[in-house]
Amino acid sequence: MSTSTTSAPPPGTQDPPPKTRHGPAPVIARRGWRRALRRDWQLYSLAVLPLLFFLVFRYLPMIGNVIAFRRFEPGGSILGERWVGLRYVRMFLTDPTFWQVFRNTLWLGGLTLVFCFPIPIVLALLLNEVRRRSLKRFVQSVSYLPHFLSVVIVAGITMQMLATDGPVNHVLDRLGHDPVRFIQEPGWFRTIYVGSEIWQTAGWGTILYLAALTTIDEDLYEAARIDGASRWRQIWHVTLPGIRPTMITLLILNIGTFLAVGFEKVLLLYNPLTYPTADVVSTYLYRAGVESNSFSYAAAIGLFEAIIGLVLVTGANQLSRRTVGTSLW
Predict the structure, then answer these.
(1) Where are the alpha helices (DSSP H) in 145-278?
(2) Do residues 285 and 301 lie in contact, with contact meaning Cβ atoms separated by under 8 Å?
């Protein structure tokens, strides 16, 4: 019985180990990047305007957060007059009005997430089961249409429908009920806001899920049917796992904007009578910063809101990566 042995190469003929700090590897990578830039400079130039947009309108304004720790006076220095430390942070942490506004934001954000996130998934699954193309296109067009309406139009339609002399109260009057002041009642505001948000965003949200449904392999459905799976079983074991990455991605993004409840719609729908349930952080910032000229106080609250949003999206991303293996980064 013979055994084969591998002889070592003579000294001096081995390849030198790659250098990672100051060796040729970074030089080669740099030359490859420059060569790619010279070859595809037209494609890289397309990224210039988006990068400038984010730089000018997203990153440079972050410098203004410094006035959360400095006293800002209109007409004075853009970065504030003098350093005050955590004064404005202590002010809103001890302000009972802020905590009421913060609770309202959590309520509206939570209700929006609970109802507005799953409805596009359900609508996409239902549309995916429709076999008549004409009916499917009609439902898609009708459900997409509200997305193309501005927030002002949506708020106007909502207020006209729910006015004391509006169509909804006319129906209630025909049924023998007294008119309900939907717009003036604090208890109705959350229902009105979430309902209008579902009407405006549900159809548009189905586009991403319908696109994800087209990527599922039809052989998986065929195998499930051979195994005797019903239609519900196919949806549960094939369809939902197929669109799970899209669902997780959108869920993380929605959690990241959890506290950024729609400022425009709330501002258009609420009034002083509904402040107890309608006033949110963004509208409170508008009144405190723009109307009352307390820019430093509003900047401190906005910075607090941004930090919470960053923590939420980072935590949701880490939780998703550990549980289902899907994450944004």
Answers:
(1) 151-161, 167-174, 186-213, 218-226, 231-234, 240-256, 263-269, 275-278
(2) yes
**Cα–Cα distance, 244 to 241 (Å, whole number):** 5
Tell me which residue of 173, 253, 246, 163 sits closest to 209, measured CA to CA: 246
Alpha-carbon distance 255 to 328, whole Å?
A: 13
Report the alpha-carbon distance of residue 278 to residue 270 in Å, rounded.
6
For the residues of 137-180, what is the DSSP string, one character each?
A: HHHHHHHHGGGGS-HHHHHHHHHHHTSTTSHHHHHHHHTTPPP-
Q: What are 70's strand-pairing partners?
A: 83
CA distances from 180 to 112, 156, 168 (A): 24, 18, 9
Tell me the average pLDDT across 185-202: 91
Phi/psi-derived region of residue 75, left when phi > 0, alpha when psi is between -120 and 50, beta in every other case: left
Rounded Cα distance between 250 and 239, Å, is 17
- pLDDT tens sequence across 60-104: 988 888 888 988 887 777 787 888 888 888 888 888 888 999 999
Angle of CA points 313, 316, 318, to nearest 5°: 110
Provide the CA 168 distance to its chain's centre, in angstroms.
Answer: 32
Q: Would you say 278 and 269 are in contact if contact means Cβ atoms under 8 Å apart?
A: yes
Residue by residue, DSSP assigns 48-109 as HHHHHHHIIIIIGGGGGGGGGSEE--TTS-TT-SEE-TTHHHHHHHT-HHHHHHHHHHHHHH
pLDDT digits (tens, 9 = 90+) for 114-167: 998 999 999 999 988 888 888 888 888 888 888 888 999 999 999 999 998 889
Sequence-separated (6 or more) residues with CB below 8 Å from residue 320: 248, 251, 252, 326, 327
Rounded Cα distance between 236 and 218, Å, is 15
Q: CA dihedral defined by 209, 212, 218, 222, rounded to 10 degrees?
A: -50
CA distance 329 to 155: 36
Question: Reduced to 3 states, what is the DSSP secondary structure of residue 227?
Answer: coil
